[in-house]
Amino acid sequence: MITSIAAALSSIKTIKDMAEAAVTLHDAQATQEQRLKFQQVILDAQNALFSANEERSTLIDEIASLKKKIAEFENWKADAERYELKPADGSDVLTYQLKATMEHGEPAHHLCPNCFQQRQKSILVKEQTSVGRRTLLVCKRCNSEYMTQGVRHN
Questions:
Q1: pTM for this prediction
Q2: Which of 50, 52, 70, 146 could join 4 via S-S bond, C-beta 3.0 to 4.6 A?
Q3: Residue 138: which of 150, 154, 122 has the closest Cα?
Q4: What mean pLDDT do residues 123-151 have?
């Protein structure tokens, strides 16, 4: 962008110099030649300014995108700090659960550790099977299953 602006400024200086030279010309053909050169320099300056404006628009879009990503990251970080990795329902299975001081009236729930690592909150659903009398925590997002009671069948 800086080079485009510098090119535009250089073209504008050339226009000024050519305009001063045109004032001193009396010959019609020389004046016409100067006018054509003058128009070309104006076109070059306009192109340089258009290019700088396009670069500026691209940079503005990139900045907006980065600001959005930063805001999403900060929101996730604040939300993630409300949870801690703890054993689920007295088992060896670890799930993310609200810290005691962060409940704020929310019911107790388990979040999928797999999804949590991908910055996604997915509440695990408790399912019981009659066969084998197993209790599972199931993630509907990534289809992970965490057995909290019973015997695993292979």
A1: 0.61
A2: 52
A3: 122
A4: 85
